[in-house]
Specification:
Blueprint lengths: L2 H30 L13 H12 L12 H4 L9 H7 L4 H30 L4 H20 L3
């Protein structure tokens, strides 16, 4: 295969998948810090929760939250610590936080690099119409599949 053909395929495939790459990079960044899930007093915005579900389970809906069983809602006696309370008080080890911050940088770098690639890809005058069409198809098809009921 000639280098020109490989470049052209790279160009077309890159524009087609770029919207999904950016989507997964950004929603993955949110998931690093569990911003897509309710915990404690934190409740994510509905759109963040839905995008997290698309990332994880390929469905655009909010996960059904179960009510706590009656036994779990009973208050603990003063000296008794519930197992869930132990986990809430523990801070993540420094190496875990450092790795999450590093991966956050990777996710943001991937999204930015892909956005730069899109800019370069649609700037070519020779392939402008095809480039824009592939970018549009790559953005619209996954949205339609995720949102429309089949």
């Amino acid at each position: 295969m000639r280098m020109a053909t490989i470049r052209m395929l790279h160009h077309y495939i890159g524009l087609l998948i770029a919207p999904s790459v950016i989507f997964f990079a950004l929603t993955g960044a949110l998931q690093l810090f569990s911003l897509h899930e309710a915990h404690g007093d934190y409740k994510p915005a509905v759109i963040i929760e839905k995008l997290g579900m698309v990332h994880k389970d390929q469905v655009f809906q909010v996960k059904q939250h179960r009510a706590a069983p009656p036994a779990a809602s009973k208050p603990a006696s003063p000296g008794q610590v519930k197992p869930a309370d132990k986990d809430k008080d523990k801070a993540a080890p420094v190496h875990v936080i450092a790795l999450k911050v590093f991966f956050l940088g990777v996710a943001l770098g991937l999204a930015a690099s892909t956005a730069f690639g899109v800019y370069i890809g649609v700037s070519h005058a020779r392939r402008s119409a095809i480039s824009w069409a592939l970018l549009a198809v790559g953005a619209i098809i996954p949205v339609l599949i995720a949102v429309l009921p089949f």
